[in-house]
Amino acid sequence: MARFVNNNTNELLTPNIQNTQTSPYAQSLVSEIIPPSRLGGGVIRGDLQSENYVSASTGWKLRRDGVIEALSIEIAGNSTIAGWNIDSTTIYQTGAVLSSTGYISFGDTPPTDYGNNVGAWLGIDSNKAKLSLYKDANNYFQWDGDKLLIKAANFTLDSSGNIIASNVEIIDSLNFSISGITKVVLDYSGLLVGAPGPNSRTFKLEDAIFLDFYDANGNFQGNSEIGWGKFGTVATDRGQYVSVSGVDTFEIDGQKCIISFPFTPASSSTTVNQGTITWDSSYLYIAVANNSWKRIALSSF
To answer: CA 54 from chain center: how many Å?
Structure first.
């Protein structure tokens, strides 16, 4: 049983009260017989609350289980809560900072601004949202508010938009643009430069590379292409060669040169560039100098 001293008469009181939390007498006794200045190291066995306390509405309450209920808490000076330090501008602990100036950062020594500082930084700088994940000068991922900057062991994306990579794997397809060309698509079947239409080009990346042409109306010119690569259905036929298809076709593989269409010079001085070779059913013609042809007669064997 608790005992109290009447501060006015020094009389020792032993109230016969079993529940000091709910008894009006006990509440009055604590208020009047034990002034706040005398609480000192005493024990409050119930909850402590303001007279205007209404849950989630007004006032405050300090529960006996250690929970504080309040609509807002104003802390003067520096404080520590669950390992987090709080001062007038920053909430921080080892390895992490949340600043009222508009950033969060992480690291052994969390960076305090955007830039080439080891760690992670996300925030507002010069009125722009910026991100920096920085290890060293050769390993970083940054967004400076205008451009994405990446550098790793085998990949670099610099501030000018240049990409340097030792290997690029495209899982499905890649759509991008090149200055002056509205559409570039790269997928497993090839590279399309320009949407299928006027003046577009296609590179087919299989065993060979082709450059296909479309006419001014967007129609594919199936007999007009430039190709390089491996052709043929059996190993002995598969050589490296260049093919230029169209009105005139020229092919070179590992064993032969193919000029598909004949041409007969009108005379030995017909206009021509030195080194030109052509043929007809009777002769092989070679331009040994500009505008100077010689020919070799052909025979069966």
So the answer is: 49
Q: CB within 8 A of 245, min separation 6: which ones?
A: 223, 224, 225, 226, 227
266-283 as b/e: b if 16+ CB within 10 A: eeeeeebeeeeebbeeeb
Q: How confident is the model at residue 41 (pLDDT cuts 50, 70, 90)?
A: low
What global pTM score does this model have?
Answer: 0.43
153 bridge partner residues: none
Give the pLDDT confidence of 176-211 residue by residue, as tens digits: 555 555 555 655 555 555 555 555 555 544 455 555
Give the best-scoring range by mean pLDDT among 13-27, 34-48, 147-161, 169-183.
147-161
